[in-house]
Specification:
It is extended and about 120 Å long. Among the domains are: 144 residues, SH3 type barrels; 130 residues, no CATH class. Helices cover 25% and strands 25% of the residues. The chain starts with a helix and ends with a helix. The chain has eight helices and 17 strands. The chain has 396 residues and is an alpha+beta fold.
């Protein structure tokens, strides 16, 4: 008779034996797994050492490579601070965003006020990214280079802020002219000199006249708009269209009258442009400027009737979008001298001015890029007048 031993065991003893059996089986499996893992790891290490000693393995071994991707130029420009060279670049003046119209002389056209080609004017391409300057309303950017048929004529937004474009006389208290006051007074049309007020004369109609004794001999009885302050003006006193006198570059004792035509900005390298009454343009610094004490309501009334007066009237009307031709160095152009167009070559470009060398005499002269003496500008203005007359004559 068989007896089941398990039946004679205590239930707690039976449970304990079952538990011990499970533990032994688990330990046995864990030991086998550990041995297998160690064996696999050792085998992998041996294969790795064998491959590393193989010459072929050395040749195909991968190396880390750094790949540089070039950012778009507009992104780079946006991240960089503007440099003085960027501020002072000539390319910024005629070709910068903000130009509002362009004209290029060719053979015939009557499709546009600002183009004489047979095709309608096409808006020029502007840079994809531009975060430093803005175009005026209704304008288009223009970065065209000088074409073979002639230069581009542009109306370029000149300055970057309203303080650089103002042509309104500031409402400041007038300085009273007194006896013994040292001033600059008109002796001749293009010659003002330093002197002292020696007498104040009241005319029958109430106007005041000032007798000035000049340091270089002689006296003159002049009005307030023919007297300038000797001291240097403050920036808040200056505006485009102001009547000023500047010291002659050739004679320190002589001062010449003119109209202030540009305030300091990025486009003119922080200088003042003055048009003298004889149409000569000059870039000067603040110490060279002297404000006229009591200018006329219309400062242009003090300029003799000549082509320059008409030019200044149109210039101030167009400001801050003056018409400018776009020339390059070594370009051959024609410039009017005493009513005759003469050949010359552009020696250099300085913001709104060009320095030309005349072929016949080899003499040099600075000329404004919007001057009516330039053949291209004269043709452009004549074309505009013709188109305006045609438009006025057309029935509505």
């Amino acid at each position: 008779m068989e007896v089941d031993v398990l039946d004679d065991l205590d239930p707690r003893t039976l449970a304990l034996k079952n538990y011990m059996g499970i533990v032994e089986n688990h330990n046995e499996n864990l030991t086998k797994s550990t041995h297998k893992s160690i064996h696999s790891l050792n085998e992998t290490s041996r294969k790795t050492r064998r491959c590393q000693s193989d010459p072929y393995f050395i040749n195909v071994k991968k190396k880390a490579v750094v790949v540089l991707n070039r950012l778009p130029e507009c992104t780079i420009n946006a991240l960089q601070h503007p440099t003085p060279q960027q501020f002072h670049s000539e390319a910024e003046s005629p070709g910068s965003p903000g130009s509002d119209m362009s004209w290029q002389p060719e053979d015939d056209s009557d499709d546009s006020d600002f183009s004489v080609s047979n095709n309608k004017p096409k808006p020029s391409k502007s840079p994809k990214c531009d975060r430093t300057s803005k175009s005026a309303p209704g304008t288009s950017s223009n970065d065209e280079s000088v074409a073979e048929g002639g230069p581009v004529v542009e109306s370029s937004a000149f300055a970057h802020s309203s303080s650089e474009t103002t042509k309104v006389r500031p409402d400041l208290p007038e300085v009273e002219l007194k006896l013994d006051m040292v001033v600059l007074a008109r002796k001749r049309a293009m010659r003002w000199q330093r002197g002292k007020i020696v007498e104040v004369v009241t005319k029958e109609d109430g106007r005041l006249k000032f007798k000035v004794g000049f340091e270089e001999k002689g006296k003159s009885l002049v009005s307030g708009h023919h007297i300038a302050f000797e001291n240097t003006p403050k920036l808040d006193q200056l505006y485009v269209g102001a009547r000023v006198v500047i010291q002659s570059p050739d004679d320190k004792l002589c001062f010449m009258p003119g109209i202030l035509s540009e305030l300091p900005s990025r486009k003119n390298r922080l200088r003042f442009l003055v048009f003298l009454d004889d149409h000569t343009p000059l870039y000067v610094g603040l110490p060279s400027l002297h404000l006229v004490c009591k200018p006329l309501e219309d400062a242009l009334e003090d300029i003799p009737d000549n082509p320059h007066k008409g030019f200044m009237k149109q210039y101030l009307k167009n400001w801050p979008y003056p018409h400018l031709t776009h020339y390059k160095a070594d370009q051959s152009i024609n410039v009017e001298v005493n009513g005759v167009q003469q050949k010359c070559k552009v020696e250099m470009v300085d913001c709104s001015l060009i320095k030309v060398v005349f072929e016949s005499t080899q003499s040099k002269e600075w000329i404004h890029r919007g001057s009516v003496r330039l053949e291209h500008m004269a043709k452009f203005l004549k074309f505009k007048e013709t188109r305006k007359a045609q438009n006025n004559s057309d029935p509505q």
